[in-house]
Write a structure and sequence with these properties.
Elements lengths: L43 E7 L8 E7 L23 E8 L16 H10 L4 E6 L4 H4 L16 E8 L10 E4 L20 H9 L3 E4 L31 H4 L7 E4 L4 H13 L5 E4 L15 E5 L6 H10 L2 E4 L3 E8 L2 E2 L16 E7 L7 H8 L26 E2 L2 E2 L2
Parallel strand pairs: 3-4, 4-5, 7-8, 8-9
Antiparallel strand pairs: 1-2, 3-10, 5-6, 6-7, 10-11, 12-13, 12-14, 15-16
């Protein structure tokens, strides 16, 4: 006799990522498997939900596991709604962690690269960066090589780099350092000896060819009075761990990108808009800060970047630095955005011209379920200061499957 089981299987409470054959995380409901791998299940009836990140359609099937058998096979056929790589656009998440926050057993120790690679592979993130930071610094830094991790394949890249978080400069904002050749600041033996502000660290990273930016930009930039318009002139509190010192370091050219997607949009984007209008050209780059801000999945906020020559780490760095990229939740896309036929990221993303009519072109697409479910309706009605911050449900027109596409200039809809 079989029974309908209730709950999540395999049981999250029995998962041990560092000792199990497959490194499943206890704080996630899902597990990640490739073809030929297995899941241990007791006899019973199951509803299996399966997908592979936001470019795929979520499907489900009924599975019966009979008693008295040791193995059985089941095929799962993944279905895409879009293939961004085939269009020349690749996804990235520059901010995931292998230690601290929701990682368990010993947060200061964390998990090994295979566990993190499986997460990125399972969510279809083409380029992921595992950042070593304060918790786990001395244990995790052994995985830093100054090159792509050896698990990387032609279709899925992973690299270890640094988030300066839990360091003396944290009060000025956490910073992300990519493409480092050396991960120890000169003259230091411990993180307590690092500089107490971000500028010298950014300059040191840039000197060795690094790509630099502020993490979870909006933390600490909450306006003194609630506001939802962008841009606005309400002063930020400057009391957190986001892009506090950005307003200083942007003037010296030490900042390449400004992280977006994992903090409230009115907080994270206001300062960036003002510096953009002041002539600075810091790029946006999407991040999840897994498993600290979000521990559901990697790539919940991500960048899509275009190299023009296939997937490569060098192409990724160049695309982010030049602005040939955009931030997305993976379910909404503005592809090949161009003004007067000049695409973003070309010639510094600037088009100088006399006053007159401009022609803006792009391919816009998004995925929403045909009928808005209860979870989607709940997200749609949440204020912009509540998670998830960048989510396509917020753009749904009432309960239809249509989304609003607008051209915004200085906070105002122009088309």
């Amino acid at each position: 006799m079989s029974k309908q089981l209730v709950g999540i299987y395999p049981l999250p409470s029995r998962r041990m990522a560092e000792t199990d054959r497959y490194p499943d995380f206890f704080f996630q409901p899902q597990v990640y498997r490739s073809g030929g791998e297995h899941v241990s299940l007791a006899p019973g009836n199951y509803k299996v939900t399966y997908t592979r990140g936001p470019e795929y359609i979520t499907q489900s099937l009924a599975l019966h596991v009979p008693g008295g058998v040791t193995t059985m096979k089941q095929a799962f056929h993944l279905k895409r709604w879009i293939n961004m790589a085939s269009l020349g656009w690749y996804s990235s998440d520059h901010h995931i962690h292998a230690a601290g926050c929701s990682h368990y057993e010993s947060p200061a120790e964390g998990v090994a690269p295979p566990a993190m690679f499986r997460q990125s592979l399972g969510e279809g993130v083409d380029m992921s960066t595992v950042l070593t930071w304060g918790p786990g610094w001395y244990n995790q830094k052994r995985y830093f090589t100054g090159a792509l991790n050896t698990l990387s394949t032609a279709a899925t890249l992973m690299r270890y780099d640094v988030e300066v978080s839990g360091f003396p400069s944290s009060h000025a904002g956490h910073i992300v350092l990519l493409n480092l050749k050396e991960d120890d600041y000169p003259g230091t033996d411990s993180i307590e000896q690092w500089p107490s502000w971000t500028k010298p660290v950014l300059a040191w990273a840039k000197k060795q060819g690094g790509l630099t930016g502020y993490a979870h930009s909006g933390w600490g930039l909450e306006p003194e009075h609630p506001v939802t318009t962008l841009p606005n002139y309400i002063l930020p509190k400057m009391d957190g761990i986001g892009a506090n010192e950005y307003i200083v370091t942007v003037t010296s050219g030490d900042v390449d990108f400004y992280s977006a997607g994992d903090t409230p949009a009115p907080w994270e984007l206001n300062m960036w808009y003002h510096t953009l209008n002041s002539g600075f050209r810091t790029r946006l780059s999407g991040e999840t800060d897994f498993p600290c801000i979000f521990d559901e999945r990697v790539g919940m906020a991500r960048s899509y970047f275009k190299t023009g020559n296939g997937l490569s780490y060098e192409g990724y760095l160049k695309a982010i630095k030049e602005g040939r990229s955009y931030v997305s939740d993976g379910r909404s896309h503005i592809i090949d955005f161009a003004v007067n036929k000049q695409e973003m990221g070309i010639r510094a993303s600037e088009l100088k011209m006399s006053a007159g009519t401009i022609h803006v072109t792009a391919k816009a697409t998004a995925w929403l379920s045909e009928q808005q479910d209860e979870a989607g309706a709940d997200i749609a009605k949440r204020p912009l200061t509540e998670m998830p911050y960048w989510n396509t449900e917020r753009a749904r027109v009432k309960t239809s499957r249509n989304v609003m596409v607008e051209l915004i200039v200085n906070g105002e809809s122009k088309a």
